[in-house]
Design goal:
globular; five-stranded mixed beta sheet; binds calcium ion; 2 domains; alpha+beta; seven-stranded mixed beta sheet; 16 strands; binds D-MYO-inositol-1-phosphate
């Protein structure tokens, strides 16, 4: 066996099976708690929310993973201090891990709190820094998006393929309104202003991980957002790669776990989107 290749099964349970199980269990619990939250706090800014459900779901996922893979490292949003610097530092601290689970227990907490049914559980497993399993689960629609490196990406057991639009004027793009008001939000707003007249339309639905899954499923032509964290992107990145799409930072450099300014597309509109974002950033 090649010593550089990850074993995908240890102790009888595959990495993907554990990831799927965690996402499904946590997702079901999260959905059951909708509308009955008792603790709502803000973190980095008034736009960055956390509830007892985010924390409970992360604990549930962390415990389940530790039961199966006690030697693996874990990076979850709720175990990290708020803010971009802390999240970059937390990733740096575990970057030498052989196996690293990267988890956002509820991506789209603002939606969740308001009862807007677009939020997700995002779980990735990286082997020496490369994502090898990605699972994004949407409890509202009971949609499970799963990818294993080299084995394709699936939703409802159907193989996913990115969309075929080859120019921005036929594209449906998505982005976000980042919690960081100083750098990321103004940068994103510039992009929105530049792109809105040039694309078929834009969506800002409030879960980066689910937006990425939608790019993989061919429901969106592309997505970009500034200042996301590894747990927002990692699982979705593999879904897109395995569905034939392309990811990079907004300058066009290849995606890796520390990339925070992400561009993800069907591949065909990638260069055009990067060019537009570049022009927008410099005007
Ligand atoms: C947020 C969502 C949102 C994006 C923000 C993220 P959270 O994650 O993905 O769509 O615009 O930048 O922080 O806080 O709900 O896990
Ligand atoms: Ca998130
Ligand atoms: Ca979250």
């Amino acid at each position: 066996m090649d010593a550089n290749q990850p074993d995908s099964i240890i102790g009888g349970k595959s990495f993907t099976a554990v990831a799927v199980n965690c996402a499904a269990k946590a997702g079901e619990w999260i959905k059951s708690k909708m509308g009955s939250i008792t603790q709502l706090d803000t973190k980095y800014s008034m736009h960055d929310l956390v509830t007892e459900v985010d924390k409970g779901a992360e604990r549930m996922i962390r415990n389940l993973i530790a039961t199966h893979f006690p030697t693996h490292s874990f990076l979850g949003e709720e175990g990290v201090e708020p803010g971009p610097e802390a999240s970059a530092k937390a990733l740096q601290e575990v970057s030498d891990s052989e196996y690293l689970w990267i988890v956002d227990p509820v991506d789209g907490t603002t939606n969740y709190v308001h009862g807007f049914p677009f939020y997700s559980v995002s779980i990735a497993l990286a082997h020496r820094g490369q994502v090898i399993v990605g699972v994004v689960y949407d409890p509202s629609r009971d949609e499970l998006f799963v990818a294993e490196r080299g084995k394709g990406a699936y939703v409802h057991g159907r193989k996913m393929k990115v969309s075929e639009e080859s120019s921005l004027n036929h594209s449906l793009l998505a982005t976000g309104f980042p919690a960081d008001q100083h750098v990321a939000l103004p940068a994103n707003l510039k992009g929105i202003q530049a792109l809105a007249p040039k694309v078929r339309n834009l969506r800002v639905a409030g879960s980066a991980a689910l937006h990425l899954a939608y790019v993989a499923a061919g429901r969106l032509s592309g997505f970009w957002e500034y200042n996301l964290s590894a747990w927002d992107i990692a699982a979705g990145s593999l879904l897109i790669e395995e569905a034939g799409g392309r990811l990079s930072d907004v300058a066009g450099q290849p995606y890796h776990l520390a990339v925070r300014n992400i561009t993800a597309t069907n591949g065909l509109v990638h260069d055009e989107l990067i060019q537009e974002l570049h022009t927008a950033a410099n005007t």
